[in-house]
């Protein structure tokens, strides 16, 4: 009897070991919300039961950036990594695999035509001349905007600002009412860049693209006006006191969701708050209390900010991941398959590929906002920077001007110097 039990136990162990050996694991790192990523992974593993996905979530700044740098230095990057186009992708390009041939085999030779125009431009941003490699597959798109709390605005007798005077008046009323006027996480370079791009494109659509390509100087009048307008948002009390030490995530976004902030520069991705489970959804259920507008004309401008955006997040196949066939399978489903659909159902953001939309329960108000974003996405101006050194120089310039340590002209001259060096001019 004992011998039979031993044999049965051994057989079960061998069967379990064999099953484990047949399974493959895909490792993924990103700042993509944990609760949302679990749904694409579940859908993927249901479709591919022999593939298991191990996901590691990081807050984007500074945890994710720090983790990527350390892993790249030790050649221990996971199979798939979340990326923004341009400077972040270029920092890790030597560790990534061009997916052109794999994507063409998966989706057809014209697969890139199904990506929204601004996304197609961004995928190749920063590649060396002659390099047409796609090192990032976009998953989601975004459009930048100013979110505002409709309930607070109604209580104070305010409406979405149409002019800069409206914006200042709203900020004053919010502050006097005990609210944070417009929360700016000015300790985060990415949020400062986003606001500056809103401002710069008021003066000349696409001007920052031309400046980073060396086609117009960073010290041109439009960009100087945009930098002065950036300083004005601090001086005129539109941004909150202490903005230079504040972070957009988690601090600002949480305060906005809790009804303590009147306005905040974020983007279409913030619709996802309506899908978070309790208690996170307590303040943002169906997003009925929130809406968005584009930055009204600032001093010197005659038009509001155009839509600015592009790829919210994409994913790269690392050279480590290229040795794991299952990694590419997961990446395709995450960006343009069952995984993407689950993310869209969570309203995580807008699709990067045409032909997708959220399914399931979505309130009429969110549907209306979603439709407005999707209408603007095909015409969005580029949000990204191709060369890390230029983005870093602009971050430093924005911080210096905000702190009163630099004037607009000198700050932009430093960005021009960094651009000249990066372009070899």
UniProtKB/TrEMBL annotation:
Stretches of the chain forming a coiled coil according to its record: none
Residues annotated as signal peptide: 1-21
InterPro entries hit by this protein: Bact_solute-bd_prot1, SBP
Alphabetical list of SUPFAM superfamilies matching this protein: Periplasmic binding protein-like II
Localization per Swiss-Prot or TrEMBL: Periplasm
Keywords: Signal
GO cellular component: periplasmic space
Keyword Signal recorded: yes
Principal location listed in the UniProt entry: periplasm
Family (UniProt): Belongs to the bacterial solute-binding protein 1 family.
PANTHER family to which the protein is assigned, alphabetical: ARABINOSE-BINDING PROTEIN-RELATED (PTHR43649), DIACETYLCHITOBIOSE BINDING PROTEIN DASA (PTHR43649:SF12)
Protein name: Carbohydrate ABC transporter substrate-binding protein, CUT1 family
Source organism: Ruegeria halocynthiae
């Amino acid at each position: 009897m004992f011998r039979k039990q031993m044999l049965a136990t051994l057989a079960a162990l061998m069967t379990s070991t064999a099953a484990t050996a047949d399974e493959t694991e895909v490792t993924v790192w990103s700042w993509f919300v944990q609760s949302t990523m679990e749904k694409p992974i579940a859908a993927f593993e249901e479709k591919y039961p022999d593939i298991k996905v191990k996901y590691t979530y990081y807050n984007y700044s500074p945890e994710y950036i720090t983790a990527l740098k350390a892993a790249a230095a030790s050649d221990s990057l996971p199979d798939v990594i979340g990326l923004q186009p341009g400077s972040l992708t270029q920092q890790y390009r030597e560790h990534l695999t061009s997916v052109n041939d794999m994507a063409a085999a998966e989706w057809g030779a014209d697969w890139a035509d199904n990506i929204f125009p601004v996304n197609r431009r961004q995928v190749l941003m920063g590649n060396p001349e002659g390099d047409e490699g796609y090192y990032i597959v976009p998953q989601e798109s975004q459009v930048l905007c100013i979110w505002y709390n409709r309930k607070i605005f109604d209580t104070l007798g305010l409406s979405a600002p149409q002019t800069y005077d409206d914006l200042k008046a709203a900020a004053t009323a919010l502050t006097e009412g005990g609210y944070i006027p417009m929360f700016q996480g000015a300790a985060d370079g990415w949020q400062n860049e986003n606001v500056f791009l809103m401002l710069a494109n008021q003066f000349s659509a696409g001007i920052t693209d031309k400046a980073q390509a060396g086609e117009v100087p960073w010290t041109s009048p439009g960009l100087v006006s945009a930098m002065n307008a950036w300083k004005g948002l601090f001086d005129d009390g539109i941004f909150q006191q202490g903005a230079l030490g504040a972070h957009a995530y988690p601090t600002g976004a949480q305060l906005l969701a809790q009804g303590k902030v009147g306005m905040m520069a974020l983007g279409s991705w913030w619709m996802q708050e309506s899908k978070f489970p309790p208690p996170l959804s307590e303040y943002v259920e169906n997003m009925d209390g929130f809406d968005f507008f584009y930055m009204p004309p600032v001093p010197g401008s005659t038009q509001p900010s155009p839509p600015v955006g592009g790829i919210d997040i994409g994913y790269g196949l690392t050279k480590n991941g290229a040795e794991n066939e299952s990694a590419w399978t997961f990446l395709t489903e995450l960006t343009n398959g069952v995984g993407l659909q689950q993310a869209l159902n969570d309203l995580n953001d807008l699709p990067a590929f045409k032909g997708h939309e959220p399914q399931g329960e979505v309130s009429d108000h969110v549907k209306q906002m979603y439709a407005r974003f999707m209408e603007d996405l095909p015409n969005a101006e580029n949000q990204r920077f191709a060369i890390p050194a230029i983005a870093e120089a602009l971050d430093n310039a924005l911080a210096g001007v905000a702190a009163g340590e630099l004037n607009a002209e000198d700050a932009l001259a430093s960005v021009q110097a960094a651009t000249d060096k990066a372009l070899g001019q």
